[in-house]
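Lab notes, practical 5.
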Amino acid sequence: MKIEKIAAFSEDGRGGNPTGVLLLDEEIQSDEMQYLASNLGYTETAFASRQDDGRWFARYFSPEVELPSCGHGTTTLGAVLAEKYGTARYEICHKDIQYCVDGQKNSNGLAATTHSPSTHSKQLNAMATSELLDVFGYRRDQLDPDIPPAIIYAGSTHFVLALKNREDLANMFYEMEEGCQFMRDKNIFSIMLVFAENNHIFHARNTYAAWGAMEDPATASAAAALSGYLRDIGWPHENALKIIQGEDMGAKSILRTEFSDVKGSPVKVIGRMNKLDR
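Output from the prediction step:
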């Protein structure tokens, strides 16, 4: 069994979120998947098997636990399928979530576009906002008033906290144990902290404590959910965003999104992939 090693959402062959992908010719047990993911050590490893109807069934593991969802793992899986079977649209199912991924292989390498599930969002009340601020030690006057704290969804659930200053984002810190417990208590996949450079470029950091690491270099589901939320609040997005994530941890990732004006409609998350095992 060969695990493909791909840097998801890399740019010019640099940065990105290292991801493992294993296409299964035969079924293996959950404990073996966990063992392989733990040995690899990446934040996510995808295991996928082709179904009789042509779709691919995927499961995702961090080094510590099986994940409830994985946006960038799904996107990477689409690129690996394109490398093996050619440029095409691939249907990927994970539990009760259905994804379409346009995998591309050409002279420039691998790329993929994931079409998210429907999006929705809800702004946090004052008490929930205070709890969220306490995790990071931020004050209310550090928040961007144009993007209120919210719970956002596009295949998985995240909190989003927008900051007024790029420096405050760079200085993000939280205690792992506290962050892990908070995320599990609230049943969220990550907390997304963002800074709006302008209407179309966002810098982001995403917590990953519940899954065994401080931070994730690229989080495709959060990128889609943020795009849906900005659409919900009437942000002047012009139907596309560039989200720069992982920069402050030395693993710069570029996630591009495209979406219509229709509330709740799927968001495209677009990225280039860089093979790590050439």
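Observations recorded by the TA: The longest strand covers residues 97-106. The chain has a mean pLDDT of 95.
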